[in-house]
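Treating backbone geometry as a discrete language has practical consequences that deserve illustration. The amino acid sequence and the backbone structure tokens for this protein are reproduced below.
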Amino acid sequence: QLLVFDQFGVPFLVTVIITIGLIWLYTFKGGIKTIIFTDTLQTIFMLVSVVVTIVFLSNALGLDGIKEIVDYTENSTLSKVFFFSDSNDPQYFFKSFLSGIFITITMTGLDQDMMQKNLTCKTLKDAQKNMIVFSVILIFVNILFLVLGLMLTQYAQTNGITASKDDLFPTIAMLPEIGLATSAFFILGLIAAAYSSADSALTSLTTSFCYDIIEIDKKPQTAQKQIRKRIHILFSFILVAVIILFDILFKDVSVIWELFKAAGYTYGPLLGLFAFGLFTKFQIKDKFVWILAIIAPLVSYVINDYSEVMFSGYKIGFEILIINGILMFIGLLLMRRKVNTDW
């Protein structure tokens, strides 16, 4: 929005509607196969954009070659990884490490958006290989993005740029000295990052709701296509509403930071359900699960809000996800059926 549409006076709402409308068109027509193709294309554009940006920034900062970039990164105060001094610090190592493990389990391993792509592999073995290769590649991609963030921040500080967080990347992209070619890669990278998340989310939400909530496979074959179409449109509107809501509530903060905080509440019940199914043989009263899935995050929110009072000054961070999952697990234990089955 800041990089392109603001220059033409297009409101954020219109941008969101156009974006989601385009995503709806190609996901509705092509389904998951189209998503995989477009995601691959978008990922290539995004990674090329990151590399081109790092090259430009390294030249602007007077760095020559990969070795100087590595040395510059290692010597920067922004490259600090391990924080042990203050347990209340959101970056405190053990808090970040433990919550990071469970965020990965829930947001990747238990996420319909991610797993739906693995299900397109021909065999189980291929899907397993895909997950392993993906995990290894992701380490290097994360390092690449961390280096990009560090260099963007250093460039901004060196050149007196006041923009920060989500506005930093597009602000630097609009500078005259960037050049047309580099700006084009900036824009492609931003668009690719936005579309690669939104398109697969829309498809996975539609699929999950159709099969898990309304059980579309049990409805007449003739009605299924029409139902799926309506659900797809419904979730397109919901997606627009959520994006607008985030823009209103989190205008001056990092969206990704708030997203991870929100994940602590939304993914907690999923973590509890997964652990319950994995470690117990109990059957539960299905009709009450949704109530627990609301109560657990609400109780977690209260605990998080009053954590400093309840735990002698200790402030809860992203580990709220673990607390949320434990509460869900306990709730499921309390409402289990008396009959125990042998699996």
